[in-house]
Amino acid sequence: TVASAAVVPATLPGAASGLTATPGNGQTNLVWRAPATNGGLAISNYVVQYSRDGGRTWLNVVRPQSTATSTTVTGLVNGVAHVFRVAAVNAIGVGAFSPVSVGVIPRLSLTSAVRYV
């Protein structure tokens, strides 16, 4: 008989890390690091969520499927604190969410305001 290699089942990906959020006018730019483990399958997308109530409720960001580790979340309310989290997706499903970002407050910048005068 021939010995066969052990089959390791695929799992959900690990959590993304290093999530940073930079606010702008009604938007926030997010950047993160891919998870240390992809669960044995390629990452096919990232789920991005935000909360306006400190993480009690979460809303999905509508965006095209992408394996990029950055995105711009638009349509945010200026003057209101938002927190964000990201989860990697593979063929098995959605992995654990990243730690929640520091709260950021989108604001109308002075340079933006000048353009509208």
The proportion of residues forming helix, as a percent range, comes to under 10%
Strand order of the largest sheet: 4-3-6-7
Number of helices: 1
Question: What is the average of the pLDDT values?
Answer: 92
Poorly predicted residue ranges: none
Number of strands: 7
Structural class: mainly beta
Largest sheet: 4 strands, antiparallel
Strand share of the residues? 25-35%
**H and E string:** EEEEEEEH
Shape: elongated
Radius of gyration, in Å, reads 18 Å
Distance between the termini: 81 Å
Describe this structure in words.
By secondary structure, this protein is mostly beta strands. The protein is built from 1 helix and 7 strands; from the N terminus they run βββββββα. It has a 4-stranded antiparallel sheet, with no helix packed on it. A 3-stranded antiparallel sheet has the order 1-2-5, with no helix packed on it. Helices cover 5% and strands 33% of the residues. The protein has one helix spanning 110-115, and strands spanning 17-23, 27-33, 45-51, 59-60, 70-74, 83-89, 94-97. It starts with 16 loop residues before the first strand and ends with a helix.
Give the SSE layout.
Blueprint (H helix, E strand, L loop, with lengths): L16 E7 L3 E7 L11 E7 L7 E2 L9 E5 L8 E7 L4 E4 L12 H6 L2
Antiparallel strand pairs: 1-2, 2-5, 3-4, 3-6, 6-7
